[in-house]
Amino acid sequence: MLLQKLQSADNFSQIEQQIAQVLLDDKINLKNLSARKLAQKVYVAPSTVTRFSQKLGYSGFPALKEDLLNERKVRLQEEQGINPNYPFGILDTEDAILSKITTLYKETVEKTSELFEIDDIPLWSRITDFETICIFSEGDIGPLYTFKDKMLKIGRNVVVTSNADQAYYYASYFGKKWLFITVSYSGETPNVLKAASIIPNKNLLIVTSYGGNSLTKLSKNVIVIPPVERLNDNLGNFAIGVAENLIFDFLYASFFKKDFMHNKHKKVEIAKQFQVARYSDNEYLQDRQ
């Protein structure tokens, strides 16, 4: 993440360290800060600020500033809300735990939604054109199978695998035909990187944590989730699952909407044919006639 790079100041010259310190100063009005104004604060030419930005992997200072503003926003939200790593404590009552988990879910949904930028995903305009979707993750694949089940009910084929060998063979044979979605919170999972590396950029959609990693370098089509949970130092993966469910529910809705009336009719028709004996006395659960 950019904040970590600025704080560590690895391989920074003295001037670059001064630039980093200005950017890390919370009192600075970062939103209105230009490369020229920043250069004036450390007594260098604006081109020095541009080169500093490029050294960190950005095209220029505006791109760096945008990333830094987003990271600051995420950090502020973390400080103000429930700690996703330790959302409850040993002294909390059951009611308090329920309240905190509920708040965490709400905060995670809001943060994930704010980070979602469809315009930044080049393949989104043709995402519903793919006949088959292959999803590969070595993490929790529960949300992925929920997505697969929903898609099946509107006639869409989804392959979910956590097997590295299968993923690599799928990528080798169908990389140019299928939509591949690789899911890795860290973005550094070796087997995920290996499979993703042989898939054409135009067919690869990445779901990973915000802040940049090795996986995001393999495709321009990236959906990011809030980097709020540590890899190991936590009480369980609460926020990650919520974020992934939101993303894949939205993806399902996008496919459904493409042919809304047809999908609605077929889904309900087939469900009624198969579940003839399904019944409930609860009037809230009963289908409309």
UniProtKB/TrEMBL annotation:
Origin species: Ligilactobacillus agilis
Protein name as annotated: MurR/RpiR family transcriptional regulator
GO BP, sorted A to Z: carbohydrate derivative metabolic process
GO terms assigned for molecular function: carbohydrate derivative binding; DNA binding; DNA-binding transcription factor activity
Domain HTH rpiR-type: 1-75
Stored PANTHER family: GLUCOKINASE, RPIR-FAMILY TRANSCRIPTIONAL REGULATOR
Classification via InterPro entries: Homeodomain-like_sf (IPR009057), HTH_RpiR (IPR000281), RpiR-like (IPR047640), SIS_dom_sf (IPR046348), WH-like_DNA-bd_sf (IPR036388)
Pfam families: HTH_6 (PF01418)
